[in-house]
Amino acid sequence: MKTERRAFIKTIGMGSFLLTTAPHLASAPIEDLCFHDDDLLSLSSKLLKEWCNTLLQYQIKDKTQSGLFGGILCPSCARIHGRCPEAIYPLMFLAETTKDKRYLNSAIALYDWMETNVSHPNGSWRNDVNISNWDGTTVFMAIAIAESLISFGHLLSNQIKQQWLSRLKKAADFIYTNFHIKYSNINYPISATYALALFGDLFNEERYKTHAKQLAYEVLEYKTPNDNLLFGERGKGNDMVSPKGCYPIDLGYNIEESLPMLTLYGLKTQDSVILDAVAKFLQAHMEFMLPDGAWDNSWGTRNFKWTYWGSRTTDGCQTAYALMADKDARFYKVALQNTKLLKTCTSEGLLQGGPHYNSHEVLPCIHHTFCHAKALTTILSKGLPETLKKESTKLPREIPYGVKVFRDINTWLVSNQNWKGTITGYDKEYSFKNGHPTGGSLTMLWHKHLGPVLASSMNVYQLFEASNMQSDFDPNSISLTTRFQTRDGMYMNISDLKSNIKYNIYEGNIIFTTQSKLVNANQESPEDRAIYCQITYIFSNDSVSILATHDSEKTDYVDFILPIISPSREKYNLVSQTSATVQKAKGILEIKSDKPLKLLPMFPSKNRIFNHVPGMEAIPFAITNNTIEIKIRFI
């Protein structure tokens, strides 16, 4: 189905409006752009060119196709995303470094498409054509145009350059007039700090610079009191703390958009106060990177856009961590590990929305590619710090520290010799209910040889940002979060905002005990009575045990759902009624239960379920009993 869809999209262009599908469009081979003395820059240069060559394959080149010419067609969404002109900056960079005019022509055509389809008289650019009138994303388009003009404007004719400058001035005034610290989610005013700083120089207007500095210093007030995390990803809610004292925080947006933009502002203005604050923010957020370069946003407010490597419509963590790598040697490793993961998740020239898109034959949204191309372009264009710290070092979660508590998100991280885990009771919701999991759920379980074993998704997959999310066509798709739920799926313990979590360490084992109720999105119990649950997680170096109980009196009313992360290429075996194994690349994962394991319905041809958050397949086991004991181990 995936291959047929892509082939169809390319076929309709032959003789009509899609550009050439030649696999190698630039005259210079990818290797010629490599920075051979640095692993991060070398990998980034190869990956950037691979992505941009593929973007060219999906760009519409037929000038007779009014309204379509210049746009980049998405193979998954079968439309042109309104933000695709942000690829102008990466394309202009390649036009400069390869001297291949096809990149320049592509950038100019993208700009023309943007002006034809998403430009608005008030100076903004809309997020989408006829789908979304949201104009806050003007700031990202404006930064891409400004960076292109400043660094590569000499490639443009005087007429085109003046056209871009004139239009950018209107966008600059729109941002100056409308963006304030409470404009929207915190990523918007933070991005405006860098945009306005660029405009100040480009148009020689101090008012832009003054407003940029005001916003940057207001942002510093959005630091949580205990954990030094950036907050403000609140949706249409407010910044008030939750009943548990939690703040509105999304890891993905913070590390891939907000902190990179604040980094760029600090570096441009050489503001030591801002740069010191950014370094501390980056250290705090770095705690959530897994050893393989993945970002554990299993708990964030905008978790609905979480993918294993980051967030779907943001730029990437490379800008912040690579450009600040002189502050902390671990920052360079963060950027490198994540870029390696981006490469692993790239297939047929596009960044997939997660590690298992290919195995489940799900087409990737092209949004991921043109956004993340900007982060790689930024570090390649601006270069790494001269005093880069690159000595051998370990990421925080590579160290077996036991337990770290994050009070401002009611979340605990576990790290022993072999296992990494995340347990959360985070009760700050976004603008809708039943989004990120809570209830004392184990939202991430990762093994140093096996990778992710358990990984959460949204409680209920909802297209909250329909134009920025992919539809779920798997009829058997369910949440990937381990949980108790009623048979009809209406009531789940992972929806309980009032859960209680405690832990202790006994004889070297880390033991978490969580108490919750089965509730629906409105925090209501089933009609007959409340059903209470207790789930205990025991982390030893050899295994992770789950002891789960509930007090429902009804037989076959409550199931314990255990989705084991596994791409369909892996073989699994039901050894007995109570045990199963999964053959992983580096060994065997064993699951043993004291009660019978049953399999829930799966996508037939793949024998797996799939969820776009965080882009993974799983084997959905279910156990029906009031008392359950499960042991998961590597053999």
Automatic annotation (TrEMBL):
InterPro entries: P29_C, P29_N, TAT_signal, Terpenoid_cyclase/PrenylTrfase. It holds the Pfam family Ulvan_lyase_C. The lineage of its organism: Bacteria, Pseudomonadati, Bacteroidota, Flavobacteriia, Flavobacteriales. Residues 403-631 form the Broad-specificity ulvan lyase C-terminal domain. Residues 48-397 form the Broad-specificity ulvan lyase N-terminal domain. It comes from the Bacteria. This is Uncharacterized protein.
